[in-house]
Design a protein that fits this description.
Layout (H helix, E strand, L loop, with lengths): L5 H4 L10 H4 L12 H9 L13 E3 L2 E3 L7 H10 L2 H11 L3 H7 L3 H4 L12 H14 L15 E5 L3 H12 L3 E5 L8 H4 L8 H14 L2 E3 L10 H7 L2 E4 L5 E2 L12 E3 H15 L13 E5 L3 H13 L3 E6 L41 H10 L3 H12 L3 E9 L5 E10 L17 E4 L3 E2 L3 H8 L15
Parallel strand pairs: 3-4, 3-6, 4-5, 8-13, 9-10, 9-13
Antiparallel strand pairs: 1-2, 7-14, 10-11, 11-12
Helix pairs in contact: 3-4, 4-5, 4-8, 5-8, 6-8, 13-14
């Protein structure tokens, strides 16, 4: 490595984010870029660890450990330290079709498996990756790479999310003629409509789509296979069909009141907001608008966090986030060793802006609820203690803001949520005029695709030629 002692000389440093009080007033990305000299120091923290785990993607304890696409992380970290940015970009593109996407939205399991992270803060791999590709675009190094020859093979790719786009780019550069079909009106899938603009600005997505079009990839939008175009006909007209439809079926909550007005799936909310933002800067009134409303978000994952950030920017009056799992520890627990993904307490961009407090504001509804519970007789207290022992605690964040989206207060509390001996754990929460439902998304039913395409044999042998 270029700096064998870099991990001892330089502290972990990330770029300063935009002020949360100001960034919630617009929909632009909230990250700043670091100076090149500071980035080189961060690259120098990558130690000569002998057997790096950051790039060896795999599953440990049913979680991703290391980079799932096997990025050559130690190599481009060292090249950044040496100032060889063009070479670093080439190494990054060896394994990653779209580092401008992963450098912004990936949860960075590589950093969780960084060897330096055993005893010190991990290398800032994700930020270095994003900086490499952004510099590549700024310098004009990232250009269209059309194939030198065509194979005569035709491929249809159904779905234009990250998987579909990556498949289309690889197949096109190998010389095949590729057409991508997308049922939405814009290319990108969840990159375009699922991830909010402040997390991934849409011009970044469109920039890559334009490059792929220049390389010869054909895009067909507003076209649902099986509805707007016959699936069997599509199969007959192509030598191969790639299904990259993603996970679009939301996880529902079959509970009383689910059918009431004001309860929505997260993607319905996020998709509509981004489309309205792109179409009319949110002036067309065609999205769910929570301005001045009380909002509940059920689910504490990335999608739930995106709902928090979107609700605040729309100007909700209050925001309550329910997370069913107990609050994780600040550091790795004994049953969560390195190089597993660290299950620790984190604050994401949707929570940022106010310092989390473990005691609620005395005048908040949740605090009054806790005060009422504290006045229960001894028998009731015993039931609450037993519930806590069984892990029946809901971790909740409550955030209050003004009508223009200014964040006023963020509080955090563990709500006792006892399970009765007989019956479920259902409880009533009264008050909010608007609720968002967030959670895991299931993969679209594979049987429906078999029905659409039938059981046709492959038309011909599909060769891999000249993958560039």
């Amino acid at each position: 490595m270029g700096k064998p002692t870099g991990f001892m000389e330089f502290e972990r440093q990330l770029p300063t984010d935009r002020d949360p009080a100001l960034r919630i007033l617009d929909w632009r990305e909230f990250h700043h870029h670091m100076l090149e000299e500071d980035l080189r120091k961060q690259g120098g923290r990558c130690m000569d660890c002998g057997v790096p785990f950051c790039h060896t993607g795999g599953l440990m304890a049913n979680m991703a450990a290391g980079c799932p696409i096997n990025n050559l992380i130690p190599e481009w970290n060292d090249l950044v330290y040496r100032g060889h940015w063009r070479e670093a970009l080439d190494r990054l593109h060896k394994t990653n079709n779209f580092p401008e996407f992963t450098g912004r939205v990936c949860p960075a399991p590589c950093e969780g498996s960084c060897v330096l992270g055993i005893t010190s803060p991990a290398v800032t791999i994700k930020n270095i990756e994003c900086s490499i590709i952004d510099k590549g675009f700024d310098e004009g190094w990232v250009t269209a790479q059309p194939p030198k020859t065509r194979t005569g093979k035709k491929v249809a790719v159904i779905g234009s999310g990250p998987a579909g786009l990556a498949a289309a780019q690889q197949l096109n550069r190998a010389g095949h003629t590729v057409t991508v079909y997308e049922r939405a009106d814009r290319i990108g899938g969840l990159l375009m409509y699922g991830i909010p603009n402040m997390k991934l600005e849409k011009w970044v997505v469109q920039r890559r789509v334009n490059l792929m079009a220049d390389e010869g990839v054909k895009f067909v939008t507003s076209c649902e296979v099986g509805k707007d175009i016959d699936a069997v006909h599509l199969r007959e007209e192509n030598d191969a069909v790639v299904l990259a439809t993603g996970a679009t079926k939301p996880r529902d909550l079959p509970i009383p009141g689910r059918e009431l007005k004001g309860v929505h799936f997260a993607m319905e909310f996020l998709h509509g907001n981004t489309k309205s933002l792109l179409d009319s800067d949110r002036r067309d009134g065609k999205c769910l608008d929570v301005e001045g409303k009380k909002v509940i978000v059920i689910g504490g994952g990335d999608t739930g966090n995106d709902c928090l950030g979107t609700s605040m920017r729309q100007g909700c009056s209050s925001l309550l986030n329910f997370e069913i799992v107990p609050q994780p520890p600040a550091e790795r627990a004994g049953n969560n060793p390195w190089p597993q993904w660290p299950r620790i307490f984190r604050i994401d961009y949707g929570h940022a802006g106010s310092r989390p407090a473990h005691v609620l504001n005395r005048h908040s509804p949740l605090q009054r609820r806790r005060e009422r519970q504290s006045q229960i007789a001894d028998g009731g207290q015993s039931r609450l203690v037993q519930a806590r022992q069984r892990g029946s605690t809901v971790q909740s964040s409550r955030r209050l803001g003004s009508r223009v989206g200014m964040r006023l207060r963020l509080s955090r509390v563990g709500l006792p949520w006892p399970r009765e001996t007989a019956g479920g754990s259902a409880r009533h929460r009264v008050g909010p005029a608007f609720e968002l439902q967030s959670g895991l998304r299931q993969v679209r039913d594979e049987h429906s695709w078999r029905v659409r395409f039938g059981r046709l044999p492959p038309r011909s042998k599909f060769d891999r030629l000249g993958d560039q």
